Amino acid sequence: MFFRNLSLFRFPESTSKSLKKLEKELDSQRLRECGPLELATRGFVSPFGRDSEELLHQIGAFSLVTIGAEERLLPSVVVNEELSDRLAKIAEKEGRRIGAKERKRLKEEVISELLPRAFIRPSRLSAYLDADNGWFVVDSASRKAAEDAVSQIREALGRFPATPMAPEESPRALMTDWLIGGKLPEGLVLGEECELRDPAEAGAVVRCRRQDLESDEVREHLKSGKQVFQLGLVFDERISFVLGEDLVVRKLKFLDVVLDQLGEGTAESARAELDASFALMTLELTNLFGYLEKWFGLPRPGERD
Q1: Residues 248/5, Cβ–Cβ less than 8 Å
Q2: What is the DSSP string of 11-64?
Q3: Rounded (10°) angle between helices 100-114 and 76-94
Q4: Could you give the CA distance from residue 139 to residue 119 in angstroms, rounded to a whole number?
Q5: What is the CA radius of gyration of the chain?
Q6: What pLDDT was estimated at residue 200?
Q7: At what angle do helices 270-296 and 171-181 cross, to 10 degrees?
Q8: How many Cα atoms within 13 Å fall on the side-chain side of residue 255?
Q9: 209 forms bridges with which residues in the sheet?
Q10: Which whole-number Å values give the CA distances from 203 to 225, 227, 244, 272, in the listed order?
Q11: How far is CA 41 from the centre of its chain?
Q12: I need a labelling partner for 281 at 20 to 30 A (CA). Which of 72, 98, 110, 230 fits?
């Protein structure tokens, strides 16, 4: 169950107290089936899968939640095609022009008739809260999906003042310096991927994969004024990832030295496997986040924030 992408938020220490009632509050926000005339529904489901009713998995200060959604697939092209057919029939039969108000009403009728027959697409999104250090971690690189997850927790608790990262040091400037000078913080080494951009509007974009980032080719791009927007990194020989200038962690991968700690075939059940994986993941990420906080200046917000 290791996360693959990380969107990070921080919440103040006082919020940690309200997390004690999270398990109780989640029950009222369970995912329900999408009604015949609903486009989508959203709510919490069990991290353990369909066969479990538990909505929260806790290990110490860490709380794992899974947000589920059901969305009816009704492509606009289907709606517009049906609407065009009806408009054509009216024009042919009555010989009159359809006004905007009537057109809107007809479109609503089409949607109401087609929705109950539309396929439903389910989705799941995992996230966890670290009550001790004030991190809310969403397994997604999508800003919208991450903010929706914050909203879902906020709806359950009534109040959840989690905010996106507000670094004191510019990630773009700092990562550009790392790549130009070749001097990275202790424990951090370059990976094999980066995205360089000319900061000017509509400027050139260079994406490198499976590339020696210390090569002359990359350095020439830096000399021409391009800056680092994404940078592949390896932390402590345990985790590899691509860090964006928005501080979103993409392509997160735990290396063999970490995975070997899980052993092979030792988990007695899927529940035990999730428990072990979650414990190991949060331990490793807590260490990484501590360094991100130090490198970029990411203090935990106070109550006034």
Answers
A1: yes
A2: --TTHHHHGGGHHHHHGGGB--PPPTT-SEEEEEE-TT-TT-----EEETTEEE
A3: 130
A4: 26
A5: 24
A6: 79
A7: 80
A8: 11
A9: 193
A10: 11, 11, 18, 50
A11: 18
A12: 230
Terminal CA-CA length for the chain: 32
Give the helix/strand (H/E) hosting 123: strand 119-130
Which ranges of the chain would DSSP assign to H, the alpha helix? 15-18, 22-26, 76-94, 100-114, 143-157, 171-181, 216-223, 256-259, 270-296
Contact 255, 238 (CB under 8 A): yes
pLDDT at 17: 85
For 229-280, how does the pLDDT look when each residue is reduced to its tens digit (9 = 90+)? 999 999 999 999 999 999 999 999 999 999 998 876 555 677 888 999 999 9
Q: What is the distance between the alpha carbons of residues 230 and 42, in angstroms, rounded to a whole number?
A: 32
The answer to whether 115 and 39 are in contact (CB under 8 A) is yes
- Measured between alpha carbons, how far is residue 73 from residues 76, 107, 141 in Å? 9, 16, 23
Low-confidence stretches of the chain (pLDDT beneath 70): 264-268, 303-305
pTM summary value: 0.87
Please give the Cα distance from 98 to 91 (Å, whole number): 8
Q: What are the backbone dihedrals phi and psi of residue 47, each rounded to the nearest 5 degrees, phi first?
A: -65, -15
Read off the DSSP letter of residue 113.
Answer: H
H-run or E-run covering 161? none
Q: For the chain, what are the domain ranges? A: 7-74+119-164, 79-116, 171-296
Structure tokens at 64: 């794992």
Token match 């004030």: residue?
134
DSSP 245: T
47, 57 Cβ separation under 8 angstroms: yes
Q: DSSP state, 6?
A: B
Encoded tokens for 305: 């924030």
SS3 168: coil
